[in-house]
Write a structure and sequence with these properties.
- By secondary structure, the protein is an alpha/beta fold.
- It has a 5-stranded parallel sheet with strand order 2-3-1-4-8, sandwiched between helices. The chain has a 3-stranded antiparallel sheet with strand order 6-5-7.
- The protein contains 9 helices and 8 strands.
- It has a domain at 2-116 and 180-214: 3-Layer(aba) Sandwich (Rossmann fold).
- 49% of the residues lie in helices and 15% in strands.
- The chain has helices spanning 13-24, 31-41, 44-55, 61-71, 90-103, 117-125, 167-181, 183-190, 202-214, and strands at residues 2-6, 27-30, 81-84, 109-114, 127-130, 138-140, 159-160, 194-198.
- Helix 1 packs across helix 9 and helix 4 (61-71) runs parallel beside helix 5 (90-103).
- It starts with a strand and ends with a helix.
- It binds adenosine-5'-diphosphate (ADP) and zinc ion (ZN).
- Residues 9, 31-32, 35, 52-53, 56-59, 64, 85-88, 92, 164, 173 line the site of adenosine-5'-diphosphate.
């Protein structure tokens, strides 16, 4: 499959993307994950991105486009990809359109994950992430908790609350989403690529996306 997942922070893009990779071997491409490992490794990219990310602001479009132009040409993308957290702005969407034309790649559709705001807020403040960069399993202290001592059930590393999951950063991320990313819904509607899924359970959403792919 070749799809874009669109949705507010906390809409479940990461979880849905991971489940979809198990379906047909398409790779998940998360710009957030790529940036977080660059920050952790202290690469030049990570040094540039960190201050934006900690505040909950978007990283400049030019940096993101450089990452994505290289990433989409890696061999593992040939079987398909699920874009998670990209594009995030209208300029990124316009650049992506040019890039896909150049690479002769056609998208199946853009899946817009629609989740009520109170559900989103609750999910973001209760989210914990495994600190192991190879794992990054996502937990929720209410609905899907890690082990009692806070370690990951998959790899035993500690689960942590991300720096951008403080209340202040979360409010900022949601505002940034409304201002910069929500306009992509109209953009992809015009392109004839938009499919909206009311997304309360990741499993149901994955099933709906698979059905849409097969129809
Ligand atoms: P979220 O849970 O907010 O969807 P992500 O893991 O997708 O978070 O991204 C974390 C942070 O990385 C964002 O708040 C932003 O600073 C940066 N980021 C990720 N993807 C992009 C992008 N496409 N454009 C600009 N910044 C990005
Ligand atoms: Zn883990």
């Amino acid at each position: 499959m070749r799809i874009i997942l669109l949705g507010a922070p906390g809409a479940g893009k990461g979880t849905v993307a991971k489940l979809l990779t198990e379906f047909d071997g398409s790779v998940q491409i998360s710009t957030g994950d790529i940036l977080r490992s660059a920050v952790k490794e202290g690469t030049p990219l990570g040094k540039k991105a960190k201050e934006y990310m900690d505040r909950g602001d978007l990283v400049p479009d030019s940096l993101i486009m450089d990452i994505m132009e290289a990433r989409l040409q890696e061999p593992d993308c040939r079987n398909g990809f699920i874009l998670d957290g990209f594009p995030r702005t209208i300029p990124q969407a316009e650049e992506l359109k040019k890039l896909l034309t150049k690479l002769n790649i056609k998208l199946d559709f853009v899946a817009n994950l629609d989740v009520p705001r109170d559900v989103i807020l609750d999910r973001l403040t209760t989210r914990r992430t495994c600190c192991n960069p190879e794992c990054q399993a996502i937990y929720n202290i209410k609905s899907n908790p890690p082990k009692e001592d806070g370690t990951c059930t998959l790899c035993n590393h500690q689960t942590i609350q991300r720096d951008d999951e403080t209340e202040e950063a979360i409010t900022n991320r949601l505002e940034t989403y409304n201002q910069k990313t929500a306009p992509l819904i109209g953009f992809y509607e015009k392109e004839g690529l938009l499919k909206t899924f009311l997304s309360l359970s990741s499993k149901d959403t994955v099933a709906d996306i698979k059905k849409t792919l097969q129809s």
